[in-house]
Design a protein that fits this description.
Elements (H helix, E strand, L loop, with lengths): L1 E6 L14 E6 L2 E5 L5 H7 L7 E5 L5 H4 L2 H14 L11 E5 L3 H11 L11 E5 L4 E6 L2 E7 L15 E7 L2 E5 L10 H4 L4 E5 L5 H10 L7 E4 L3 H5 L1 H12 L3 E3 L5 E3 L1
Parallel strand pairs: 3-4, 4-5, 5-6, 10-11, 11-12, 12-13
Antiparallel strand pairs: 1-2, 1-14, 2-3, 7-8, 8-9, 9-10
Length: 262
């Protein structure tokens, strides 16, 4: 499977060459989107990613830097589908699954989309559902497990968690995406046997993350920093050197447009 980083920045001021967090996984069964920061559909289109192969979109939480590109992504899929002459190669009659912790923001986005031309009339379905802990997707050889974290605080009694991390398994490989977390130790149940760990630095220092993995003896084959905070945005080479001093060459700093084959 192929992973493409579409955006690697946290919710900070606009940064040259970086957009808010999003990545895709491409497999023979289709395209899967994880978070949908600004410009994700634009970056994906220029990278040659087939929007009309979209099977599912997974949103870790509904902060703007993780959802700001979602309406435009779906609008672009609609536009490209309408331009497709061979309907068998398009989205017509198919379903996109949207997994999102809170359906209220999605309803607002849908209302906005209906304000565009044609009342956002589509000939494919968008199956939007919320989720909690556990396996939230298991189709065509790709499985996604969600685990809540405390990034948005602990919910009140009877209220659902609103922020999640993902463990993605396909083709004998495992990817863990932190989403945004309050404490890196929240990810402990997901990390064993992980081939690629994508960890946010918007709220964490690279040396703390690397130190935790080393001390906890977590079997993580590669560590990629994403959703960059101020330290990496100011001096990525300096921060990468800090990380490599602890974990060696298994560590990298993700850039927009970076691709990885697993």
């Amino acid at each position: 499977m192929k992973l493409t980083c579409l955006g690697t920045c946290s919710g900070t001021e606009p940064m040259p060459g970086r957009h808010h967090v999003s990545f895709t996984i491409e497999r023979p069964s289709g395209v899967y989107w994880f978070d949908a920061g600004e410009c994700c559909s634009y970056t994906a289109h220029l990278a040659g990613i087939n929007h009309l192969a979209t099977r599912a979109i997974f949103i870790s939480h509904t902060h703007m830097d993780h959802t700001g590109g979602l309406p435009n992504l779906l609008w672009t899929i609609r536009k490209l589908n309408g331009m497709q002459k061979d309907k068998s190669q398009g989205m017509s009659g198919k379903t996109i699954k949207l997994l999102i912790p809170n359906l209220a923001p999605w309803q607002g986005m849908l209302d906005m989309l209906k304000g565009t031309e044609g009342n956002f009339k589509i000939d494919f379905d968008i199956d939007a559902t919320d989720y909690q802990d556990g396996v939230i997707y298991d189709e065509d050889g790709l499985q996604v497990m969600a685990l809540h974290n405390a990034h948005l605080g602990e919910p009140g009694e009877g209220q659902p968690w609103q922020s999640f991390s993902f463990r993605i398994e396909a083709d004998g490989k495992c990817i863990v995406f932190s989403g945004d977390v309050k404490d890196v130790r929240e990810l402990d149940p997901l990390l064993d046997g992980c081939d690629l760990f994508l960890m946010e630095t918007g709220h964490h220092k690279v040396e703390d993350v690397c130190g935790y993995l080393k001390d906890a003896k977590k079997n993580v084959a590669r560590l990629g920093f994403i959703h960059h905070g101020s330290a990496i945005l100011e001096a990525p080479d300096r921060e990468l050197a800090k990380a490599k001093a602890i974990l060696g060459d298994k560590v990298f700093v993700a850039d927009d447009g970076m691709t990885l084959e697993l």
